C-alpha cells in the first residue's frame, strides 16, 4: 500500500500535519510513503513566484530532499495529471497534503479531491500553515472581519487556541518508496535558478559565518533560536529600526513552510515563560504574536476576498487617477530617487531579497503617494525581488500602504521619508550601508542631500546629479498633490 505525501508550501518534516497523518497510517497499515513535490506549470502567470523566491525554493527543495535521504520525487507539470499517473503507477490509495490558500490552489485542490474520490483514492488535507483557519473566524453575523484589531482580538484570540506543534516524524529510508524507476525531474531541471549568476551575491547574504547557505528546515529552526535569544527581548521597540537585529527574518522560512507559524508562536511563548515572563518581555511577546497575526489576516483576506492581488479592496479607488510614469518607476526600482532611505530600502531589496518592514512601508508610501504610481506596480516588483514574496502578505500590505485595502492606512498618512529616516535610522547606519556614495555626509544632511548646503556637499566630495541624484520630487509639493487627489475619494472605510 502506497500513500502519497504531496509537499507544497510546507517544506519540512516537523510539525507537518499531513506528513504526520500519512506516517501514522503507514505505521498502522504497513506500506510505503511516496514524497512528491510538483512545480505546478498551470499557475496563473501573474502569480508565478518571482525570480528571488524561486532561488530560495531551489535550495529549500535541496534541503528537503536531503532530509528525505534523496527520496523526494520532483516533477513539473499539472499536479492533477501527475498525481493520477503516480497513483496508477505505484498503486497509491491515498494522498495527503497541507492546505494552501491562494485562490487557484483552493480551486485546483477541490478538483483533485473530487476526481480522486471517483477513483476511490482518499485525499486528506490539513492545516499546516495558519494558526486559525480563515473560515473559523467570523463576525457574529457570519461575515468576515475587515479590520485587523477585531479580527485578531475578538476573532482569533477568543477562538480555539492554535494547535500545538507536532514532533518531527521518525522516517527511515525503507519507509520511503524507491523513486528510481519513476519519471521525475531533478531539482536543477526545474530551472528555478536564473541563467545569469546575479543571484549568487543575493544568496551570499543568507550564509552563516562558515559560508553555509541558511535555507531549509534546519536553518529555519536555527534562525528562530537566534531570534528568541537575541531579538525577542526589546522586539516591540527595536522592530522599527532597520539597522538593528530585532526582527526575526523568518518570513522566507515561513512562506515556504520550512517552519510553521505554530512552531514560531509556541517557541516564543515558551521562551518568555522560561525567562519568567517579565512584563516587558510579555509585551514584546504580545507584539510579536500580533505580527504573526498580520500574516494570518493577510491570508484571511486573500481567502475571503480572492481578488485582492489585483483589484482594489475598496472599490472607490477604482476611480483614482494614477499618473503612470516610467522614469519615476525605474528610479524607484533602482534605488535612484535621491531620497536616501528610499534608495537604501530598494537596494537592500535588490541585493538581499529582503527589506525591513518599516522601510517596506516607506518605499510603498513614497511610490504610491509621492510618485502617484499604481500600487500594483510596486507589488509586482516586490513579488519578483523578495525571497519572502507571498501573494497574501504582499497584496494585503500593498493595499494597506495605498489606502485601498481592508483596514488600510488612511489616505492622509503619507510618511515623510526624511523625518522617518532621522527617527528610525538616526545614526545613518542603514543608509550608509546601502547608499555608500553619500556616506561622508554628516547625519544632519544624510537624510536629505538635496537640501544640503553646497559647502557641506563639497566637503563630502559629493556632486549631486553626478555622484547621487537630486530628489526626483519635492516631498512637500508631492505630498500636497497626493492629499488633494486622495481627498477627492472620500474617507469612508467599511467596518
Ligand atoms: C509593501 C509591503 C509588502 C510586503 N510584502 C510581504 C511579502 O511579500 N511577504 C511577507 O512575508 N511579508 C510581506 N510584508 C510584511 C512584512 O514586511 C514582512 O513579513 C516582514 O518584514 C518580514 O520580516 P521578519 O520576518 O523579520 O518579520 P518579524 O517582525 O520578525 O515578524 C515575524 C513574522 O510575522 C509576519 N509578519 C510581520 N509583519 C507582517 C505584516 N505587516 N504583514 C504580514 N505578515 C507580517 C511575517 O511572517 C514575519 O516573518 C510586506 C509589507 C509591506 C509594507
Automatic annotation (TrEMBL):
**Which molecular-function annotations from GO does this UniProt entry contain?**
deoxyribodipyrimidine photo-lyase activity; DNA binding; FAD binding
Q: Which residues bind FAD?
A: 235, 288, 388-390
Q: Give the Enzyme Commission number.
A: 4.1.99.3
Superkingdom to which the source organism belongs: Bacteria
Biological-process GO terms, alphabetical:
photoreactive repair; response to light stimulus
**Site keyed Electron transfer via tryptophanyl radical: positions:** 322, 375, 398
Please give the Pfam families that the UniProt record associates with this protein: DNA_photolyase, FAD_binding_7
Q: Which cofactor does it need?
A: (6R)-5,10-methylene-5,6,7,8-tetrahydrofolate; FAD
Its recorded reaction(s) are:
cyclobutadipyrimidine (in DNA) = 2 pyrimidine residues (in DNA)
Q: Which residues form the signal peptide?
A: none
What note does UniProt attach to the cofactor annotation? Binds 1 FAD per subunit.
Keywords attached to this Swiss-Prot or TrEMBL record, sorted alphabetically, are:
Chromophore, FAD, Flavoprotein, Lyase
Q: Where is the Photolyase/cryptochrome alpha/beta domain?
A: 1-131
Q: Keyword Nucleotidyltransferase, does the record have it? A: no
What this protein is reported to do is described as: Involved in repair of UV radiation-induced DNA damage. Catalyzes the light-dependent monomerization (300-600 nm) of cyclobutyl pyrimidine dimers (in cis-syn configuration), which are formed between adjacent bases on the same DNA strand upon exposure to ultraviolet radiation.
What the record says about family reads: Belongs to the DNA photolyase family. Belongs to the DNA photolyase class-1 family.
- Protein name (Swiss-Prot/TrEMBL): Deoxyribodipyrimidine photo-lyase
Q: Which organism is it from?
A: Pelagibaculum spongiae
